[in-house]
Amino acid sequence: MVKRGSSTFLLSMLCFGMAFLYVPMFLLIVYSFNNSKIVPVWGGFSTRWYKVLFESEEVWNALALSVKIALVNASFATLLGTLAGLALVRFGSFRGRTLFGGMVSAPLVMPEVITGLSLLMLFITLKEFVGWPDKRGFATITIAHITFSMAYVAVIIQSRLTGMGTTLEEAAQDLGARPLRVLVDITLPLLAPGMLAGWLLAFTLSLDDLVIASFVTGPGSNTLPMLIYSRVRLGLRPDINALATIIIVTVMFAVAIAGWIMMRQQKQKEREMQLATTGDAQ
Amino acid sequence: MIIMKPTAVKSTGIQRYQQMFAGVSRLLQQLQAQWKSVVVTVPYFWMLLFFLAPFFIILKISVAESLIASPPFSDLLEWTRDGALSIRLSFENYSYLWKDDLYINTYLGSVKIAGISTLLCLLLGYPIAYAIVRSPPTTKNILLMLVILPFWTSFLLRVYAWMGLLADQGLINDLLIWAGIIDSPIRLLYSHFAVYVGIIYTYVPFMILPLYANMEKLDMTLHEAAADLGARPAVTFLTVTLPMTWPGIVAGSLLVFIPATGEFIIPDLLGGGNVQMIGRVLYNEFHSNHDWPVASAVAVALLVLLVLPMMVYQKVQEKESGSGW
Question: Which CATH superfamily is domain B100-319 in?
Answer without folding.
Answer: MetI-like (1.10.3720.10)
